[in-house]
Amino acid sequence: MAITQTVEIPADRRITLEVPREVPTGQVILTFTPAHVAAPAVKAAEKSEERDIELFKLHAERLNAEALDVLSYQDEL
To answer: What is the distance, to the nearest Å, from the Cα of residue 71 to the centroid of all Cα atoms in its chain?
Structure first.
């Protein structure tokens, strides 16, 4: 699981983190990357996510039909 969020670092260089409940407790690795360095990778990830959403929308009806078909076999067992 990876969470990416762009934040402004204030002059006193102090930030407070609130972690979503979905993140398990325990050790984590925090990485700080200047936004101008990460921008190309973030844009590529956003485009990939947009592409995945469009593909899902394109094939949603077929995928739902396949899922219902699989579930119908479970009723037979």
So the answer is: 27
